[in-house]
Design a protein that fits this description.
binds fe (ii) ion; single chain; Immunoglobulin-like; 615 residues; seven-stranded mixed sheet
Length: 615
């Protein structure tokens, strides 16, 4: 794709436009008022509209479309008089090809690109109508190939009958997914295509057929685009300028995957002018729920929940975070995939990070997948879930001198941001909405993280010579053992208060020190406030020094007092956490090992009062 060629495509069919209409602007106001009072357009036009619809669809389908149209008309508050006109207009639009522009398309999502291979591309779209579709395609100026009579899969809307899903707006009972497979493509060739559906042809879009033999490949990676479509759209508005060969998404695409209405608002609308020309490869996140809609919309190659792709010098493995066991089908797939890949760069993505200092402090896959990644020489791990950017120094176990892995948390795709924290394992961290642009050649993997205002958040380059990592890269290694110490100490730093602290009313703050999981020796802790909390709280006589119990011993309660500085009012959120957050950090020392750890935000809890009552 060429950035300069990319312009906004009008009428690509996003949103539900069936309730549009009106068109009284050419009438003078006075004349219009007279006509309006004398003519009831509702009844005759309703009859005409229904007749047209019945002739366009089967009786059952017409009834369902009619119900939907009336529902939409009710939303705009004038269905009594004008619903018939709207029905008639929609019906005429269906049976009169070319009677309206692309803006009248019955395509409700898409078209968008999926499942590319060197000689195929899948063009997908969604509609609420069950009608045959067609795709015309070819090289520029020669759209002489066609995939005709494309028939849909019917998907029952996940929200229908669901008890735990929240409806944001009106959702249909079912929708239809169309997949047109373009075949016999030439690798690396640019193709133009348009979809013909219900008598409307979409704007012409183009894509580049996948080229496994390409010397260079450029792609975007990001995650957690859910909940705030405006923030998501600020990022996606910049995607085209990078002309990506494809886009990776580390999950949490929408806030509630079972909610049909969110897919348009939070994903397909902000991505409308991107995924029509760049194939999209996601992995499932926890917000995708049971994956019903996720699997309806996305068609990754091979297996649907875990898969891999090769493009030029890059090999990308996508995994489902829900499967962590080494005896799972996914693990067997991953092991075989990574052991057989000879690609210069191996990249894996999944939703929850293996290493993560801020946010959820995720530790996904440390037991089974991380050893596999070392064994198969993984270069880069991409994850999201925590809404921030974190780039770790290369991580490797002590004694490993030839290989290290760069871990990235790229969860800044639009969801509410979480605080990020300094840590000696982190090269760069920031709480910012962002996306990544990566470019791979045989000898180098360049990466940039770009904020939503277009400024550069981070850039780095991995290099290899004859498959060997550069010495200066290996010299930056942060030992995996110290990150494990961070995880072992973190549970001991979750604090609780019996009452919200005031400036003149200090509160007792308690900690419940636990034995270090996996460590034979206790850790000495020097506990202070995290820098983010220091402006708003004061601990009495810091640092608080304590030693964790030995393995097998019971937990140890310690406490101190905390007061507010008065710089900001102290409140409580719905999870009973203090706001601004009160986060403790500690210098953690266990034998010769030393690192930094942070606790979960301080909560109000009765157990804190119990601890404070002890002598
Ligand atoms: Fe998540």
């Amino acid at each position: 794709m060429v950035a300069s060629e990319l312009t906004d495509k009008e009428g690509s069919g996003f949103g539900e436009r069936l309730a549009g209409g009106g068109g009284k602007g050419y009438l003078k106001a006075k004349k219009w008022r007279r006509m309006r009072s004398s003519i009831d357009w509702g009844k005759p036009s309703r009859v005409a509209g229904l007749i047209v619809l019945v002739s366009a669809f089967s009786l059952k389908e017409a009834r369902e479309r009619g119900v939907f149209l009336f529902m939409r008309s009710d939303v705009i508050g004038c269905w009594r008089k004008w619903s018939g006109v709207l029905v008639a207009a929609a019906g005429l639009a269906l049976v009169l090809p070319g009677a309206h522009g692309a803006a009248g398309s019955l395509i409700s999502k898409g078209p968008y690109l999926q499942a590319p291979a060197s000689d195929t591309m899948l063009i997908m779209w969604e509609s609420l109508a069950d009608l045959p579709g067609k795709v015309r395609f070819g090289v520029e100026g020669q759209p002489d190939a066609e995939v005709g009579d494309v028939r849909p899969r019917m998907i029952k809307t996940a929200t229908a009958g669901a008890t735990n899903a929240v409806k944001v707006g009106a959702a249909p009972r079912e929708f239809y997914i169309y997949e047109a497979a373009l075949k016999d493509l030439k690798p690396g060739e640019t193709y133009h295509y348009s979809v013909e559906f219900a008598g409307v042809r979409t704007a012409t879009n183009h894509f580049k057929a996948f080229n496994p033999g390409a010397e260079r490949v450029r792609f975007i990676a990001y995650g957690d685009s859910r909940s705030y479509p405006e923030a998501h759209a600020r990022l996606t508005a910049r995607f085209r300028q990078h002309a990506p060969d494809f886009i990776l998404h580390t999950g949490d695409i929408v806030a509630r995957g079972r909610d049909y209405t969110l897919w348009a608002r939070e994903f397909f609308n902000p991505m409308a002018n991107v995924i029509n020309e760049a194939p999209f490869f996601p992995v499932i996140g926890n917000h995708e729920g049971d994956g019903t809609n996720y699997l309806a919309y996305f068609h990754p190659p091979g297996q649907r929940l875990w898969y891999s792709l090769d493009v030029g010098p890059a090999h990308v493995l996508g995994l489902d975070y829900r499967f962590t066991r080494s005896d799972s089908e996914q693990f067997r797939f991953a092991a075989n995939d990574l052991m057989t890949s000879r690609a210069p760069w191996k990249i894996v993505m999944f939703h929850k990070p293996v290493f993560n200092i801020g946010g959820h402090v995720s530790d996904w896959g440390q037991t089974n997948y991380l050893p596999l990644f070392y064994r198969t020489k993984m270069d880069l791990v991409l994850a999201g879930h925590s809404h921030m950017y974190e780039r770790f120094h290369p991580v490797a176990p002590r004694g490993e001198r030839d290989w290290a892995i760069t871990h990235i948390t790229t969860g800044g795709g639009g969801a509410e941001l979480y605080d990020s924290f300094d840590h000696p394992s982190l090269a760069v961290r920031e709480s910012a909405h962002h996306y990544m642009v990566l470019e791979a050649t045989r000898d180098a993997l360049q990466a940039r993280a770009i904020r939503d205002d277009g400024t550069l958040l981070d850039s780095f380059e991995l290099k290899k010579t004859d498959g060997r990592m550069a010495a200066d890269y290996l010299a930056q290694v942060y030992p995996e053992e110290l990150l494990k110490l961070f995880y072992a100490a973190t549970p001991s730093l979750a604090s609780r208060v019996a009452s919200p602290p005031g400036t003149n009313a200090p509160a007792r703050l308690s900690l419940n020190l636990k034995p270090l999981a996996g460590w034979p020796a206790p850790a000495r802790l020097e506990i202070t406030l995290a820098p983010q909390s220091a402006p708003y709280y004061e601990l009495e006589d810091p640092p608080l020094r304590a030693t964790t119990p030995l393995t097998g011993q019971t937990n140890l309660a310690v406490w101190t007092t905390v007061r507010a500085t008065g710089k900001r009012a102290i409140t409580m959120n719905s999870d009973q956490e203090l706001r601004p957050p009160l986060v403790l950090m500690a210098k953690v020392r266990c034998g010769e090992e030393e690192t930094i750890a942070y606790g979960a935000p301080c909560r109000l809890a009765k157990t804190a009062a119990t601890a404070a009552d002890k002598p």
